[in-house]
């Protein structure tokens, strides 16, 4: 947080965002990028692999790209394995790459009918 000190002593030449702060942006980016239909609830089920290949230097604009790696049925819904890459503007390497497991649950037809009755 000490910008002057970071400019003097940091190998990056400025302050940087913590990797976990960058990782925490995944759900916000996902909500902006993808509209999941018919899901009553989504659950962050976990991460299989996370890497931070490059720093997020203060002021850097970031964005995310998502790729569906696999999907499987689970009780009450589906489990998606997403490969997420957070990229920094004009950076050669991504700043974060993660395999993210998300479960999407659907409301059962019986419960949906009970609630509307």
Give the helix/strand layout:
Elements: H1 3-9, E1 16-17, H2 19-24, H3 26-33, E2 41-51, E3 56-57, E4 62-74, E5 77-88, E6 96-105, H4 109-116
Features:
117 residues; 4 helices; alpha+beta; 4-stranded antiparallel β-sheet; two-stranded antiparallel sheet; elongated
Tally the beta strands: 6
Helical stretch tally: 4
Estimate percent helicity: 10-25%
Spatial shape: elongated
Give an overview of the whole structure.
This protein has 117 residues and is of the alpha+beta class. Helices cover 25% and strands 43% of the residues. It starts with a helix and ends with a helix.
Give a brief outline of the structure.
25% of the residues lie in helices and 43% in strands.
